[in-house]
Write a sequence for this structure.
C-alpha cells in the first residue's frame, strides 16, 4: 500500500494528523498550470482534465464518510 | 453543489473525484479501501445515495491524483478556461465556490473581449484563510 507523508494513504482510523494542511499549501498555486490527469468515470469513460479546456472546471474531492 | 452544477451547466464543467474514505471508522459499510473494485463500488453507492448530476471520477487505489492535489478530504479546485488554477480551498463551501465560479466565468469573458476588442485587463493574486465550527479535534 502507498505511503503519504509518513502514513498509509488508505488508513483505518482517522486522526487529525491525516490532514496535511501545510502540504496542501505547497501544491499547485492559483495562477499556475494545473497538473493533468486522466481518471475513469462511473459512466465508463476516461476523463482527461486537459481535454476540458475552454470552460472553467470545478473539481470537488470527497468520499462517503 | 449539485444545484450549482445545474446553474452553470452551459458555462462550466463540474467533476467530483471520489477518493479514500475520510472516516472509515465511522461506518462499517464503508471501511478503508483494499482494492480498486471496492473503491469503484463505494463510488457507485455514493452516486445512488446522492443522485448528483456531476460526473463522478474514481481515483486510483493509492490516490495518485488526490495526493498530487494535496490530499485534503473535501477540498475544491477551480481550473480556469486556459488550464490554470483559479481557486483552491481545503474545504468545500458552496457560497464561496459560487462566487469563484462567477469570477472564473467573468474572467473568461473579459479575456475574450481583450482578444477581440483590445480591452485592457490586469491579473491579480490573492490568498485567504478561514475557519468553521467542527465536531472533531482540530488538525
Amino acid at each position: 500500500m502507498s505511503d503519504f507523508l509518513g502514513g498509509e494513504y488508505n488508513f483505518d482510523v482517522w486522526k487529525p494528523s491525516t490532514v496535511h494542511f501545510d502540504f496542501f499549501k505547497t501544491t499547485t498555486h492559483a495562477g499556475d498550470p494545473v497538473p493533468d490527469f486522466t481518471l475513469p468515470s462511473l459512466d465508463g469513460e476516461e476523463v482527461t482534465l486537459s481535454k476540458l479546456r475552454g470552460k472553467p472546471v470545478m473539481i470537488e474531492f470527497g468520499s462517503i464518510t | 453543489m449539485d444545484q450549482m452544477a445545474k446553474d452553470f451547466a452551459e458555462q462550466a464543467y463540474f467533476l467530483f473525484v471520489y477518493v479514500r474514505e475520510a472516516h472509515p471508522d465511522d461506518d462499517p459499510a464503508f471501511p478503508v479501501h483494499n482494492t480498486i473494485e471496492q473503491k469503484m463500488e463505494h463510488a457507485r453507492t455514493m452516486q445512488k445515495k446522492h443522485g448528483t448530476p456531476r460526473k463522478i471520477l474514481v481515483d486510483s487505489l493509492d490516490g495518485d491524483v488526490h495526493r498530487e492535489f494535496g490530499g485534503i478530504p473535501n477540498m475544491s479546485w477551480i481550473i480556469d478556461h486556459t488550464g490554470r488554477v483559479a481557486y483552491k480551498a481545503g474545504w468545500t463551501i458552496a457560497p464561496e465556490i459560487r462566487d469563484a465560479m462567477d469570477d472564473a466565468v467573468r474572467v473568461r469573458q473579459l479575456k475574450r473581449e481583450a482578444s477581440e476588442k483590445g480591452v485592457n485587463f490586469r491579473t491579480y493574486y490573492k490568498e485567504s484563510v478561514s475557519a468553521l465550527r467542527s465536531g472533531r479535534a482540530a488538525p
Summary: The CA atoms of residues 39 and 45 of chain A lie 8 Å apart. Chain A has a mean pLDDT of 94. Residues 3-52 of chain A form one domain.
